[in-house]
Each structure stands twice: as structure tokens, then as C-alpha cells.
């Protein structure tokens, strides 16, 4: 059938606009790396700021969903040259014989002295790396009187004070006989929930939230495929090849059609290589709106009107592991299909999880390298398995590492009707 000439012209105009926009976005991103990411963040914030009762809200939601799709497609299609790695802190035998004491080594000496490594052990590391013993010894001795190092020592005392405050508070928490057990219980009243779990910063698993959720009867991989298989979603892919897959999650984004992804999960067996995580913005897209209709009563202190903006679904095979990290807000995570094992560490133990970069810890809770991360040996890890129908409440800043024990479908939401915006000052040392 031939197209109506008027429609044809209009379609061509829309197509031309989309093409121009895509080209301009790509050029802007090339010239200013991260540009599209910032525009996406701005659009997400603008969208969040539109009140629920705004006239024509579904239309506005659809406009934002389309906008985000265009932006994400442009972002995904750009190939960035690999960024150079940060230089690693020098390790034994990295440098040639009689290497000079470079600035890298001076920084290494300062950082390791701040960690209270002994001058003798540092000297043997440096000589083993081929540095002249007399030069190494002199550099180690000199650092103590270096004015910049002395300033770092003074500031370290301020940090140590805060560390002792949190260590004492943790001691109090852990002295409770029930500290090591994550409670599983029916939803308490709003007052008790807010007082005991939100303000008390105590994780809990709620066993009855999903009693009336259509999702419990309906959601399955096959149902996802049947109802939404034609839609695009953003997944994380190629994670097995990257030990830092979570920190590098932007590099692992891939847009795929949900149907073939469901087939891949069903056929692929246990693996951590691919996972549809909360980073996907699927629930912001009108195509996925029916999923939200399957969500019934919410836990105490949730704002229903914010559910669409502040929720995500997760889908993946058995074997996905989300490494140890903390979130920047409080959230609920409801298991609809399959079980997940959560391993939790108190925020008051943050100084012992080697949080050198962002919200991440390099420690694998299942297999901690205590030679490299000895303080982690002092940490108490709390364990809980969340079964289908159960809901984990994760209070502020709790560290968690999460393993899917089965093919898993879950729904997470941060729409508390209490202030849930927090600000963190994150370190960015990636070479420790
Ligand atoms: O389910 C997972 O794999 C991770 C969940 C998580 O980290 C979260 O909801 O914050």
C-alpha cells in the first residue's frame, strides 16, 4: 500500500529530526566524553520532578521514555577508545635494576606509611623491585619530615576519630544477642517499621508483602517473554571476562530484545556472565507498565504514587553475583521467582571493607583474601536467604553481596515516603 503523501512527508521530517539529533549527540559525546550520560541524568531528574497529578501525565511519561531511549541508543552506539589505566602502585619486581625513587614510589611510600607499614618491610619491597637500598632507605626516612606528609598525618587523626566513633557504635550494635540474625517477620505497623528498622538501621525480611500481588501468580520467564518479548531492555553482558564488572558496569551495557534474552537465560544454565539489573530503566517505559499493575499492597512507609519512578525489575540466571557494595538510599527488594542469598555487613564496619573506590568494596565475602584485606577478618557478616514472596528491607548504607540461587525475577523499589536522599563523599582510588 502506498503511503499518503502528507504522512510520508511528516514521517520523513520526524526521521530527519531523529537522524540529526542522533548525529549531534554523537558529535557532542565525542568532543565531551560523558555528555550524553549527563543529559540522561538531567532528563531522569527532570522527569522525577514532575508531580504525579500533572495533567496529561501519561503523555509526559511517554515523552520522557522516548527521550531516554533516543539518548541511550546514541550513547550505546558510540565506541570510545579505551581510557589508559591509572598507573598501578608499584609492586615488587615491577621496575628494572637500580631504578630511581620515582614520584610513584614516593607516593607509594607515603600511602603505605599512612597505613602503618613498617619502614623495614617497605625497604625490602623496594629493594626487591630493584631500587638501590641506600636511596630507598633515605626516601623512606625523608617522608616523615616532608611537610605534605605531616599535613596528611594531621588529617588522618581527624579520620581516625570518626573511625573510633563508628567502631564504638558497632560494638554496641553487635553486643545485642540477636545481632547476627536477620529477622523474618510479617509487616509491622508503620510506626514500628520506621522506628525499629528505618531509624534503627536494621535489615529485615518481610514475609507477607506479596500476599495480594498478581506478580506472584503471573511472573515467570515465559510470561516475560510472552507479554514483553518484543521490547528492548538494557542488560549487563560479558561480565565473566572482567573481574571488576560491577565497577565497570557502564562498559557492559547492551540493549537486547527481552524475548531472546529470556531464551538465553533459560538455556544457559548457571552463570554470572549476563544479568538484567536495576540499571535498566524498563519500568519507565510505557511498554512495561503492565508489570506495575501486578504489584499489590506495598510495605509500610511506601509512597504508591512514586512506584513507577522508583522501581526496577531484575532478571537473570542462577549464579549472578552482585559484589559487595552499598546503595545510596534505602530500598526494598522483593523476590518474585527464585531465591537470593544476601550477605550483609554493617555500615559501621565501613573502615574494614577497603572502600577505596565509589560505593564498592574489593572484598569477595564468599572468599575474602585476608592476606590483602586483613581487617575484613574482624567483620561480622550477616546471612539470609530471601525466598519467593519475601521482601528484603535494606536500611541505609548496609553493605551487601547478593547471589541468585535460582533463575530469578525480583522487583526493587525505593519509594519510601520518608526522606530518602543522601549524599556520599566517595573515594576514587582504583589502583590499590
Ligand atoms: O539482586 C542483586 O543481584 C543485587 C541487589 C542489590 O544490590 C540491590 O537491590 O541494591
From TrEMBL:
Location of the JmjC domain: 274-432
Pfam families (alphabetical): Cupin_8
Official protein name in the record: Cupin-like domain-containing protein
Organism expressing this protein natively: Variovorax ginsengisoli
